Amino acid sequence: MRFSLILLLALSNVASAQIVSLGIKAGVPLTDIPRRQATPFFANSALIFTDTGRWTVGPTIEFRLPANLAIEVDALFRGFRGGSAGPEFFFPSGQALLVVAQQDVKAIDIPILLKYRFPGHTMRPFISVGGTSTNESVSGRISYTCLSAESCYPPGVGPFLGGEYSGASGRGGYTGATGAEFRFHRLKIAPELRYTRVHRPASNQVSILVGLSF
Length: 214
Fold this sequence. Notes:
The chain is mostly beta strands. The protein has one helix and nine strands.
């Protein structure tokens, strides 16, 4: 009974000392969106999708720990659209197709970071490092128009005039960040520079984020 009471008091002290902070993060990437290729039927196709809009925003939660440490968990949503139009599929005869492609990508990044804050009053620099999980959903449409009066299709392959496609994938990687936290009463404003690398396929992204939390 005495041991249970001591354990309960110890847990209550830890819980009271722990600070949970809720907020939101938003920002923009500094690096280009990774280029994607679509090859529905032809091995020599290369449809390049260029970015036409992007955003990053989502909630964040932080658990304060002793020794200026904290655990941060984010759920950052981002999306962009891309498209291209141009001649592709050049065959030995000189024939070609006009390819028009559109693509819409939505993703959610869930990093779990260990954060260290340097001592300070109104401004506290910090560094963060940890792992991240990225889940993407992709949808798009590709259409083909023949640029020659003769058939544009190799023998044995029927005409493919276009179609829609969609898919989803999950990838893992790691994240590192550095920034500074400014306090205005209960409000905390924390701009940061964040680097994320994910695998399969490998891609690197550098972003500027601003966090608002209480």
